Amino acid sequence: MALSYSLLCARQLLTPRSISLSAFLPRKRSCGQTMLCHCMGKNVQHFELPRYGTIQTQLRNFYKSTRQQLRGKTNVEKYSDFTSLFSHVRFTCLVCGLSFVGAMIWNYENIARHHKRLIERGGILEFPGIKKHKPPSSFGLFSKLIDQYTSLTAVRKLIFNIIAVNCGVFLLWKVVPWHMMMRYFQCAPTKAHSMTSMIFSTFSHVGTFHLAANMYVLWSFSKPIQMFLSKEEFLAFFLSAGTVSSLLSCMNKVKRGLLIPSLGASGAVYAVLAASCYMMPDSRLTLAVIGEAFDFSFSSKSALYALLVVETAGMLIGWKYFDHAAHLGGLLFGLWYMRYGQNLIWNKRQHVMKFWHDMRQASKKN
């Protein structure tokens, strides 16, 4: 049966992982220089951050002033090369490994907890579709929101929580000092950015539209993806996809000599989209607003092919506004996982679960 899901239109499709205009905000060192001045040589004058205006305006003004002052300079040192990416590859493998091992242990604990509750109830099963009678609450709207949340499936609850984390990080940009947010929540292959930014940047958005569009598309695909991934597997999948997309982004930046960091969840969102489209190639997709107004739709298989072509072309040609390498990384990871990765990793989780079970039994005996 053909299903219809809503997408954002044109360049806003899945809100690409937008490249931040901040480049490198000045960060004070012990010598009194900023991080930017230190990396570029002592002859470069210090940069001052604009004090007023919105975050986007300040970042744009700072980037323009920095670019103007860099013109004609020949003593700019390279921030990184391909040898520096070894640590990024190791970190990506570490995140992917720990994510799936942790998800397998989490899955074991959930099964053990469910088994324990089943024994305590004398073998009586509890069906999630049957609602228990609750006394009326004086907080009508709040109670309805709680009921809506509790009625969600496990995977959709997890996705709702991921959206809440993204909104929380968005608010942090308004209150936390910028040098800290730039270091940990924007991804770039430089010493000025923490290695953990490869995963933290997946939950980071500066613009309101960027956040809203990414979360809208993620929520739109929460229904189809829950048919193929459990909540534990989805969390490992999402974290791994975000880190892999950051790795490809860093590789592309080093190859092209780009110093501009990027942020956003669209790498991981693209992986969710690719996984859903691969498993449901005949389902129907539509463009938000336009598709509903003109009754226009297309197959998910066609959308997947189109995205692969566009993102590959954008990376090879060097379109600068979006981080096409991160998008392509998310698409390829989603396709690889549903085609091969699920059988190679998640479907063999019994080995990890048995090891964890033996450890638990040994600890109880001691």
UniProtKB/TrEMBL annotation:
Please provide, in alphabetical order, the Gene Ontology terms of the cellular component aspect for this entry.
membrane
- Can you tell me which residues the record assigns to a coiled coil? none
Name of the top EC class for this enzyme: hydrolase
Q: Which InterPro entries match?
A: Peptidase_S54_rhomboid_dom, Rhomboid-like_sf, Rhomboid_protease_S54
Please list the residue ranges annotated as the Peptidase S54 rhomboid domain: 194-338
Tell me which Pfam families the record gives: Rhomboid
Quick one: where is this thing mainly located? Answer: membrane
Reactions mediated catalytically: Cleaves type-1 transmembrane domains using a catalytic dyad composed of serine and histidine that are contributed by different transmembrane domains
* SUPFAM superfamilies attached to this UniProt entry: Rhomboid-like
Q: What is its EC number?
A: 3.4.21.105
The UniProt keyword set, sorted, is: Hydrolase, Membrane, Transmembrane, Transmembrane helix
The answer, when asked if Transmembrane helix is one of the entry's keywords, is yes
**GO MF annotation terms:** hydrolase activity
> Transmembrane stretches, by residue range?
89-108, 158-178, 198-222, 234-254, 260-281, 328-346
Its annotated compartments are: Membrane
- PANTHER family, per the entry: PRESENILIN-ASSOCIATED RHOMBOID-LIKE PROTEIN, MITOCHONDRIAL, RHOMBOID PROTEASE
State the family it belongs to: Belongs to the peptidase S54 family.
Protein's recorded name: rhomboid protease
